[in-house]
Design a protein that fits this description.
By secondary structure, this protein is an alpha+beta fold. The chain contains one helix and nine strands, in the order H-E-E-E-E-E-E-E-E-E.
Length: about 120
């Protein structure tokens, strides 16, 4: 009796475990790309500078990133790390961003900046 219950339970747990690994891998692969920054918004107000609208944020498979050209508020290079649940990405030196949307053609990140509000970064 116990054996009849244990085998299906083990199979079910194995499938759930494999699927959760696939989700994390897919989430990570979605961010790996050379993204063009399209806009920066605070609320509904666009605050992107002309310099920022020329930026490319290159997230690489080896967990490094590079932002070019350098602009006063968004610049640099370093390492990035995605949270285990795929909800956040941390860029060393720039903070932890909430992943609002991540598809093959769109990336939207948000960052709460003290005293300046919630900034939303839209990429294509």
């Amino acid at each position: 009796m116990i054996r009849k219950i244990a085998i299906p339970l083990i199979l079910l747990l194995s499938i759930v475990s494999i699927n959760s690994c696939k989700k994390e891998t897919n989430e990570t692969l979605m961010i790996v790309k050379n993204w063009k920054l399209v806009d920066v918004k605070v609320g509904k107000l666009s605050v992107a500078t002309p310099c920022q609208k020329t930026q490319r944020w290159d997230f690489k498979k080896d967990n490094t990133y590079e932002i070019k050209p350098d602009c006063p508020l968004t610049k640099g290079s370093g390492t990035w790390e995605m949270s285990e649940d795929g909800e956040f990405v941390t860029l060393n030196g720039l903070g932890t961003y909430n992943i609002v949307e991540s598809t093959p053609s769109t990336l939207i990140l948000s960052l709460q900046i003290a005293g300046k509000g919630l900034h939303t970064y839209v990429f294509e």
